[in-house]
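Work package 3, deliverable 3.1, input record:
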Amino acid sequence: MPSPTTVLHVDMDAFYASIEERDDPRLRGRPVCVGGAPEARGVIASASYAARKFGVRSAMPTRQALALCPELVLVPPDFERYIAASRQINAIFLRYTPLVEPLSLDEAFLDVAGTEHLFGPPTDVGRAIKRDILRETQLVASVGIANSKFLAKLASDLSKPDGLKVIEPGEARTVLDPLPVSVIYGVGPRTAKRLEALGVRTVADLAALPRDRVMARFGATGAWIHDLAHGLDVRRVTPRRDEKSFSQERTFAEDEGDREWLKRRLLEFSEELAFRLRSHGLKARTVTIKARYSNFKTVTRTKTLDAATHLGARLYSAARELFERVPHGALRLLGLQVSSLEDVRNPAQGQLFQTGSLFGPHPTSPGASPGDPTEPQVRGSAATASAGDAAARERDAVRDEARDEARDARLERALAGLDRLRAKFGARTVIPASLLGEAPTEAVPGSEPRLVRELDE
Amino acid sequence: MKVLCNRDALRQGLAVANTVIPAKTPKPILSNVCLVATADALELVGTDLDVSLRYRIEDVKVIEPGTAVVSARTAHDFVRDLSGETVELASHDGSLAITSGHDIGRLVTADADEFPVVARFADEGVTTLQGGTFTTLVSRTAFAAAREQGRYAMHGVLMEIDDGRLQMVATDGRRLALAGSPIENGPDKFPSKRPVIVPTKGVQLFCRVITDPLSPIKISVEESQIGIKTQNAEVFARLLDGEFPRYKAVIPTEANNLVEADAGILERKLRLVANATGDETRAVKLAVRKSEMELSAQAAGKGAATAQLEIDYKGKDAEITFNADYVIEGLKTCESGIVRLEFNEKNAPGKFTLGENYTYVVMPITIDA
């Protein structure tokens, strides 16, 4: 039974870069990129179409982007503004259907089945959404419409920028056949290479192979990509997120036992994962460390945080704690994973007392004066002498927590500024002290940090 | 000891004592009730070291004064299931015999010297207050105190003298209830000049022993505890040592939008619409336009609901989203029948006026920017 053509994929064109251009007219028309500084081995998170003319792409190392386009304007990311715009856009989606599945800050699947009587056919909804987004956020979206997620996304990719494209069930074959296999979700560079060895270059080539053969070669993934090659995708639009976790791991050229050096790798992983969480509009609550020894024995340790975070420092402090529980020994692999992901745009219960200002400065911190507005106004009575150890410990924990939250708030505010400093004076001035004076680590060729979900735009 | 007393009175006393006495505790002695027979009364003493109770039963006949320490749970259950009208308590060599007619139970007694010393109410420097005044302030505030989560200092009710009134405040960081009442003796007589935080378990027990709203109670505050004395009970609670948030700063003083509505109708309509919310967020949107409020909620995969009610409102169209449960909990305690809601932006706190000197502030839910 053919599914109705009601799945929309809405994808913002060069989202971060467009927000920067919108908010700073001086940037308009110039090759603008949002990303990390080259000194910090940053990558491009978003490139304007002017920058793309030079061959600059998202997920490309900034160093390489600058080589392609020396006049590139590099802007450090300011996620607060991206999240705000993303919320606005999400609210527009919800006017048309409750079935909205956000993929990241700048793209989402919508299913508009059953809304025809209210808003007309899906094409009209697509146009209306594009119009609302442009009018209310001054940003441009591309929309793909089909009967499945895969084809809808393909349609929006093919229509970019500022496009609207429908792939009707009858034309899926014609559209798909000439495209390279890499358009199939799940076919990364490695799979593409293995497919090429089988003589498969286009989607038509893959579709022509017997399903059994693809399955024998690629297992479950084989069945999946073979179905997609035939335009078959049974995934439904669900308001839940697909992502369950992000991870980052590295196999070392030689087994490594230096705990300090290994901790610095965890710091790098933490910063990278935090960046990816922020760009997906997610926060993580669970952190897992994975260590594989020379003899291939693997241990994992997990910790659940009190509050979900997208800050590198918070992830690192958990990672370091977990690392203490990993037995000493030379490691061939070290990895970090974040899971229990929460969407930052979920309805958020407001807090009466601003984080960090609730309890004022920590008693031992300098600068607390009686007239300080952050000084607690009301103090409960003291029963210190008789309160016992448990109560004292609890108080300490509460204070630590208050201090952590205050630090998080400051860190979050400083994030954009920190990135700007980095961009201006170079990574060496603002990288964590522990990475000072260290040469960038080289990964083993072919074992680059692995992305669970490939960045796509 | 040997005492004769009314079964019902004893059962009731043991029931109150069991609200303090912990069933499971690392210090087994604390799971006991200490029965003290003096010349003219039987006293039940229980404590969990944070909250303590002395409960006096006067309608007794003491044949031989003395003390017995027995399991509070077992004593209560045994007395509850007895059928006679009168009960005899008699201690003898490591056991307490509880007798009613031919039915008899012998409970093992613990060493009375091991039982912690529980303070006795001192009548100096105390103030007198009508019991009902106290319980009303507690019922208007304590529900908003933090439960499992939140900071230590928010797990209780703040009591202070403010602007000549006794004021109680409780908050869990998302909503805040504040109620005040003039006190009969005048604010200067209140035994504490500084604000104190009383743990929620403590204020609940206070209310449990205030059985007659018209009878006076006495309040005392010492360095680390607060005590109240009613006609037949003394309760002490260890004060929470912590920093209560700067609550005055978050109470809105000016509002662009002022709504007045029937509290009962609003509560019913909120309950109705909240049926269509999800388990995680109980968000209900309140949209106001001239003389009318529309409540709406939806949850993915569940459905949507809307409801309308008449209100008194003259301003521009505006909206704000709240956790329906928070608003309903406040409305339940509204005695004036008319609730007034004041709010500004949809991400700033809304202020409900639920009665005289009774304010309830709720932080909204932000759904979109």
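Helices of chain B lie at 7-20, 72-81, 131-141, 200-209, 263-274, 324-332.
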